[in-house]
Amino acid sequence: MSEPVIVFDKVSKYYPMYHHITGGIKQFIFHLPSAIKSFRSTRFQALQELSFSIQPGERLGIIGRNGSGKSTTLGLLARVLKPSSGRITLRGRVSPFLELGMGFHAELTGRENILLNGIILGMTRKEVRKRMDAIIEFAEIGEFIEQPIRMYSSGMLARLGFSVVAHLNPEILLIDEILAVGDAVFQKKCQDKMLSFRQKNVTIVFVSHAMSDVRTLCNRVILLDRGKPLITGAPDAVIKAYEGLPA
Ligand SMILES: Nc1ncnc2c1ncn2[C@@H]1O[C@H](COP(=O)(O)OP(=O)(O)OP(=O)(O)O)[C@@H](O)[C@H]1O
Ligand SMILES: [Mg+2]
Questions:
Q1: CATH of the domain at 76
Q2: How far apart are CA 173 and CA 61, in angstroms?
Q3: Across the strands, what pairs with 85?
Q4: Is the alpha carbon torsion for 239, 240, 246, 247 positive or negative?
Q5: Which residues, 6 or more positions from 103, have their beta carbon under 8 angstroms from its beta carbon?
Q6: What SS3 class is residue 15?
Q7: Which of 27, 38, 89, 167 is at a distance of 20 to 30 A from 158, taking alpha carbons?
Q8: How far is 103 from 116, CA to CA, in rounded Å?
């Protein structure tokens, strides 16, 4: 086996929980050390010692109910979040596609945003220019490519965003649900594109609530439940476990 491109080693993530100061500000200040301690202790654990590793070229699905920690996991992989404890090892350039309009500027046109996003993703201007036509052709948003992206619909933003990450030599591609806002034709096109990455050994981490997409695309799936992995394995078995979770 080759070296894994992604390793999560007992990764936990806490988010602070916000609450009102009870007993008034005076009480709070008089008992400052204990008040701070109680503030610190009220935090929410979104991921609990999550460990997994991904081999180059794998297409890993992460599924689970709302709030189970999927986006948190992708955020950690994209390095927009820091783990509270544990270690994350990444080998390769990460191309995240986590939110609509991520890395885009509302007042710039689609074409200008392609350049901006390409540079954010670590490409040179020349490299982006070389791929500009292919990106525009794949996105299929017609003359809107010359309009500021504040005029775009959600689906158009998803089209442009996916087209950019998919054409700029991704090594590790992270996708968080976003494709769901695209129409059926475009979703199919994205899936074909991702499957075509098999030959290029691109690693994909795919989060979705659409089980049919997970089944088609992924070779392995993790089911998260309240921040913990319940089961990891072949798509069919893991999807079955997910569908059998108690209400
Ligand atoms: N910035 C944040 N601050 C505080 N809590 C957060 C933050 N982001 C996420 N959480 C909490 O962490 C938990 C996991 O959230 P996460 O977004 O990772 O879930 P998810 O599996 O992606 O859910 P969904 O299917 O709804 O997208 C949730 O309980 C959520 O409330
Ligand atoms: Mg999410």
A1: 3.40.50.300
A2: 12
A3: 12
A4: positive
A5: 113, 116, 117, 120, 121, 161
A6: strand
A7: 89
A8: 8
Q: Pick from 71, 178, 221, 222 the residue to mutate for probing ligand 1's pocket: most ligand atoms within 8 Å of its CB.
A: 71
Residue 89 is assigned to a structural domain of this protein: yes
Question: Distance, CA 215 to ligand 1 centroid (Å)?
Answer: 24
Contact 13, 76 (CB under 8 A): yes
Question: Is the CB of 70 inside a 6 Å radius of any atom of ligand 1?
Answer: yes
Residue 59: its pLDDT value, please? Answer: 96
Ligand nearest to the CA of 72: 1
Separation CA 21–CA 232 (nearest Å) = 42
Q: 210 in a domain, yes or no? A: yes
Q: Which domain covers residue 31, as residue numbers?
A: 6-243
Number of domains in the chain: 1
Query: How do residues 200-240 score in pLDDT, each as one tens digit?
Result: 899 999 999 999 999 999 999 999 999 999 999 999 999 99
Taking each helix axis from N to C terminus, what angle separates 154-167 and 184-196, rounded to the nearest 10 degrees? 10
Q: Which of 8, 72, 77, 225 to mutate to test the pocket of ligand 1 (most atoms within 8 A of CB)?
A: 72
Residue 71 in contact with residue 149, Cβ under 8 Å? no
pLDDT in tens, 45-74: 999 999 999 999 999 999 999 999 999 999
Atom of ligand 1 nearest to the CA of 69: 18
Q: Give the per-residue pLDDT at 39.
A: 65
Regarding the beta carbon of 46 and ligand 1, being less than 6 Å apart is answered yes
Q: What is the tens place of the pLDDT at every residue in 6-58?
A: 999 999 999 987 666 667 777 778 888 877 776 666 788 999 999 999 999 99
Is 1 inside a domain boundary? no
